[in-house]
Amino acid sequence: MAYTQEGIMAQILVAFGQGTGTIRVSQDAALELRRWYYDAITPTIIDTQWETQAVQLLERAARSAAWRR
E strand or H helix at 36, and its extent? Predict the structure, then answer.
């Protein structure tokens, strides 16, 4: 399965949401998270790095959200 910029962004948003537990994430917060990360998901990341680094990044996204609770 080929990774896409949208698909990776969706994974980041899901990981962040899982880290928040039962706390509701506002639409503004989700849009801000997308603004920070979407353009950083470059073809280089998609093609050469995501497969090997996804787990670490997604764990950080979840932990970051949990820490902010």
Answer: helix 27-37
Q: What is the mean pLDDT of each run of 10 residues along the chain (69 residues)?
A: 91 89 88 93 92 88 70
For residue 68, give every residue at least 6 positions away whose Cβ sits within 8 Å of its Cβ, in sequence order, or none: 20
> What length is written for the chain?
69
In the chain, the largest separation of any two C-alpha atoms, in whole Å, equals: 35
How many Å apart are CA 56 and CA 61, to the nearest integer? 9
Query: Given this model, what pLDDT does residue 68 score?
Result: 58
The DSSP code sequence of 1-21 is ----HHHHHHHHHHHHHHHTT
pTM summary value: 0.80
Q: How far is CA 15 from CA 1, 26, in A?
A: 20, 15
